[in-house]
User: Fold this.
Amino acid sequence: MESNDRTESPRVSVAIPLYEEEEGLPELLRRLTAVVDRLPGEGHEMIFVDDGSKDRTLELLNEAADEDPRITVVALSRNFGHQAALTAALEFVRGDVVVMMDGDLQDAPEIIPLMLERIRDGYDVVYARRDRRQEPWWLRLAYFTYYRMLSSVSNVELPLDAGDFAAFTAPVLEAIRSAPERHRYLRGLRAWAGFRQTGIPVERDARHHGKSKYGFRKLLRLASDGIFSFSIVPIRLAAALGGITILATSLFALYALWAKLFLDRSPQGFTAQILVITFVSGVNLLFLGVIGEYVGRVYEEVKERPLYVVRSVQRAGRSARHG
Ligand code: UDP
Ligand code: MG
Assistant:
């Protein structure tokens, strides 16, 4: 049984994407290494991906890697975005258990040992469930509604309120890596992978420093990646709405005929006509857009452009493991 190697201490790889986090980075390194130092066993590693920061993030990372052979620093050639950077990090990990987390200390490194405990219990995926968030109420409301809507339209069972912060085993990593899609929604892929999954409740801390790197547009894009990569309900909605419209129109046509023949009265109403025409063309355009969204995604996928470009890798020579 596989549970045998669960009792041994697995090699843990922590994967973290960073974009302009110079202010919080020293604190992150301090807290994270303190946690990793205390993990049982050896061969642990920390993979930092610098997502084209223009501040001193990369410099600080390289300095840290000089000091600590467990640190690998991957620098991307420009800013490719959070999910691409995280995907890059997952490409470099070599451990038995992977932890993916944000680098702004919103995901507390101290949670990692708790996650590993559940992995030892036999789970393959342990994700942080954000029961409480320290973010503005309107953002919390938006997250709340979004996750519930997403899980109701998706054909994969997506856990509610789970972000990227999670620990998972090598088979899950293999499954995630084997998904070739360009529009990455990693927390979705992680759920899609299956195996035994569980969540542990955590309080999501406020950002340690600075503003979220997710502007409204980036957040919207991530949200739509969640919906459009895990559901075709929006397209089905078009068909359903079309059906309803046809039915309603047919009923009205029958009524009009009946009124004309037996009551000698034809329905009138110029304003109503204009309203109906503009409304229906609005709906048409809307769903043209929805279908366009899927077509655009198909286009992006078939181009098969790489998700990111690596500029340099600094990896300690000493850790001579396979990979
Ligand atoms: N990040 C990144 N590339 C980007 C934006 C963000 O690598 O283009 C990193 C960022 O440094 C952080 C993590 O992704 O470690 C999450 O970003 P952020 O905290 O801005 O997102 P939020 O927590 O607001 O969802
Ligand atoms: Mg954050």
In short: The chain has a mean pLDDT of 85. The pocket of uridine-5'-diphosphate (ligand 1) is lined by residues 17-19, 21, 51, 79, 81-82, 85, 102-104, 106, 212-214 (CB under 6 Å). The radius of gyration is 25 Å. The chain has eleven helices and eight strands.
